[in-house]
């Protein structure tokens, strides 16, 4: 069974950077496509970024394109979300999730396609 642990959240100033990590235990990350979701109070959960199992394909929500980068290190069983030029609207609880795909290049875009979720990490952006 996959267990996900997120880390790296906290408070950053607007315009600053932060890197989130999502590590697995129990199974190897290379078996899964991975997504980072976020949910702010009173708002819906959004898929922020996603990466295919083979890392050939990535997805970003339009509001973070050019600022966020999702990457994976299967050797470290970890997926990262590098967040640069943070804005107040980026503040939310960020959660990583994994879903198995037979197609190594497939991006999972719907939350229902993800089978295991982390506990979430709070990102706060101060002005």
If you had to describe this structure to a student in words, what would you say it looks like?
- The protein is an all-beta fold and 127 residues long.
- The protein has no helices and 11 strands.
- The chain has strands spanning 3-7, 10-13, 18-25, 32-39, 46-51, 58-60, 68-73, 78-83, 92-100, 116-117, 121-126.
- The mean pLDDT is 95.
Put the structure in a nutshell.
The chain has 127 residues and is mainly β. Helix content is 0%, strand content 50%.
Q: Helix coverage percent of residues?
A: under 10%
N/C terminus separation: 40 Å
SSE run = EEEEEEEEEEE
Strand portion: over 45%
Which stretches are low in confidence, meaning pLDDT under 50 for 5 or more residues running?
none
Shape: globular
Rg, please?
14 Å
Described by its quaternary structure, the protein is single chain
Number of helices: 0
Largest sheet: 7 strands, mixed
The strand count comes to: 11
Question: What's the average pLDDT?
Answer: 95
Structural class: mainly beta
């Amino acid at each position: 069974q996959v267990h996900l642990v997120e880390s790296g959240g906290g408070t950053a100033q607007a315009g600053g950077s932060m890197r989130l990590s999502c590590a697995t235990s129990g199974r190897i990350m290379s078996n899964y496509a991975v997504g980072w979701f976020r949910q702010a109070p009173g708002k819906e959960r959004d898929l922020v970024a996603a990466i295919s199992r083979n890392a050939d394909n990535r997805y970003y929500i339009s509001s973070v394109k050019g600022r966020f980068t999702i990457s994976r290190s299967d050797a470290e069983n970890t997926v990262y979300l590098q967040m640069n030029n943070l804005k107040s609207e980026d503040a939310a609880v960020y959660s990583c999730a994994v879903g198995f795909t037979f197609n190594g290049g497939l991006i999972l875009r719907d939350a229902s396609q993800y089978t295991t979720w982390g506990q979430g990490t709070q990102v706060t952006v101060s002005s």
